[in-house]
Structure to design on (507 residues):
């Protein structure tokens, strides 16, 4: 089925992922590709093309430029920053280094009527980040907007639907950015009918077609990405899919049961391996965080390896790779590299023909939406990120069965109190067990028990994070319940550090 799509040609700019987002927010499907041949572009049959920003100069000997034939396809083209300069250059205009580079928020003014700026305020703020600029528009183009240092901040050949903007409409600081994308989608004549339900139906059909009667294996972590990928595959190949869920005993309270329950509703082979004791014995006496991580990762692979050998010849391996992973790893890199990124080193040893990544074009919130569409329960769909080594890196020092139980119970109470308070904006929140014991008093007796640390962070990229301000009454309720209900804990601390200098996890 032909799907209406806008093609984003990637020239390496740092905001390119956002361009795809902005298009999809308009219910139009969108793909980002690098250096496509005209043959491939024609095959994709885009309703419109966006040329992105990039770090190069159009005059550099190795600069990537759009093929000139692209402008004969008869589809609207929007050039952004470097993409705008590349359009000017390829179509016979002139680009030169700007006397003054513009970075950041910049006053911008439209100077003539334009479909691209329909409904846009005459003066507004845009986000600029460039050293070169367009100094002469190609024939038949008119300048449609200016800034103090950029007489051609936007230009267009309206008859051919070619538009170019020197600024970055995809960045939130460009106040009218969303409107500009919406206008471009209209210029492309898009019907705006891309919905998650159509993605799900199309993907299942494509997977059926590709895999036929082949055997598929999925390493299921219970996280949202691998869960949604597994359910998509189960709808496509049913019992030919085997999901291997390794419970390393370091999951959150009731998590293993929730995952097993959720997957009991789908037509697939679900193998749960309860390997908790095995992991604990490997971790016995180990206190170094890196060694703990390595042992957990290695053991996970060994368990998975044993199960997959029993299953026998597997044709395909499912990975829950999502679009940010693909873009961050560099478009066009091999899927095997990402399998390491996602499942912590899986698996050179499984004899499979190919890796299947049904979510590789979706953003995280789209993956969640697909999960809802597929009928996965909300506890799985809206799950916060949870590290592969699990509670093993939320227990400082040696991991024992008793400590796992302590941190599971404290964490469940904390999450329950946060949920009851209706706090929804946290990127991640959890309890960790410090390796510290201190003196307390309970009843009339002295205690010498563990301190639990509570953490909650705000972040969008998880590379940096700030500690969230949790209302005091919520913290104090959680703390009271933890010391009263979790035997072995007599003190609760709140972690106020940001990342850096701390990290989100404790180890
Ligand atoms: P840190 O502690 O490095 O965590 O600030 C950043 C984000 O990464 C998650 N994390 C992991 N996820 N395997 C994973 O799948 C891991 O080994 C791992 N270590 C940390 C962490 O939960 C946070 O979201």
């Amino acid at each position: 089925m032909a799907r209406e799509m806008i093609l984003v040609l990637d020239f390496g700019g740092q905001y390119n992922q956002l361009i795809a987002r902005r298009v999809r927010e308009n219910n139009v499907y969108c793909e980002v590709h690098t250096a496509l041949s005209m043959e491939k572009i024609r095959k994709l049959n885009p309703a419109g093309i966006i040329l992105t920003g990039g770090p190069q100069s159009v005059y550099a000997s190795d600069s990537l430029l759009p093929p000139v034939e692209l402008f004969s396809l008869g589809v609207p083209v929007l050039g952004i920053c470097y993409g705008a300069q590349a359009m000017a250059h390829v179509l016979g205009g002139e680009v030169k280094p700007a006397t003054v580079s513009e970075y950041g928020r910049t006053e911008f003014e439209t100077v003539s009527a334009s479909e691209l700026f329909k409904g846009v305020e005459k003066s507004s703020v845009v986000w600029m980040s460039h050293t070169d600029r367009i100094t002469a528009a190609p024939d038949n183009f008119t300048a449609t907007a200016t800034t103090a240092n950029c007489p051609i901040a936007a230009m267009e050949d309206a008859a051919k639907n070619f538009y170019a903007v020197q600024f970055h409409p995809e960045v939130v600081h460009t106040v009218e950015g969303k409107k500009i994308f919406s206008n471009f989608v209209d210029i492309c004549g898009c019907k705006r009918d891309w919905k998650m339900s159509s993605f799900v139906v199309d993907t299942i059909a494509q997977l059926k077609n590709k895999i036929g009667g082949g055997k598929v294996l999925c390493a299921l972590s219970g996280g949202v990405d691998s869960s949604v990928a597994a359910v998509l595959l189960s709808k496509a190949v049913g019992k030919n899919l085997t999901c291997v869920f390794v419970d390393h005993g370091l999951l959150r309270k009731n998590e293993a049961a929730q995952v097993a329950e959720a997957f009991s509703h789908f037509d697939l082979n679900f193998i749960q391996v309860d390997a908790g004791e095995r992991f604990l014995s490997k971790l016995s006496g180990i206190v170094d965080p890196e060694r703990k991580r390595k042992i957990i990762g290695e053991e996970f692979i060994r368990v998975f390896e044993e199960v997959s050998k029993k299953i026998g010849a597997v044709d395909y391996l499912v990975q829950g790779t999502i679009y940010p992973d693909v873009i961050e790893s560099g478009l066009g890199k091999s899927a095997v590299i990402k399998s390491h990124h996602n499942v912590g080193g899986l698996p050179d040893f499984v004899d499979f023909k190919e890796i299947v990544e049904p979510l590789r074009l979706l953003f995280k919130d789209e993956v969640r939406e697909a999960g809802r569409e597929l009928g996965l329960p909300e506890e799985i769909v809206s799950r916060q990120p949870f590290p592969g080594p699990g509670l093993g890196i939320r227990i400082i020092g040696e991991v024992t069965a008793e400590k796992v139980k302590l941190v599971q119970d404290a964490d469940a109470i904390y999450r329950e109190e946060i949920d009851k308070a209706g706090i929804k904006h946290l990127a991640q929140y959890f309890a960790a067990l410090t390796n510290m014991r201190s003196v307390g008093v309970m009843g009339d007796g002295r205690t010498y028990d563990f301190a639990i640390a509570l953490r909650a962070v705000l972040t969008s990229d998880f590379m940096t994070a700030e500690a969230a301000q949790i209302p005091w009454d919520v913290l104090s309720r959680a703390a009271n319940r933890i010391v009263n209900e979790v035997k072995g804990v007599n003190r609760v601390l709140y972690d106020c550090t940001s990342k850096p200098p701390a990290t989100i996890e404790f180890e």
Q: What stands out?
A: Residues 117 and 328 are 31 Å apart (CA to CA).
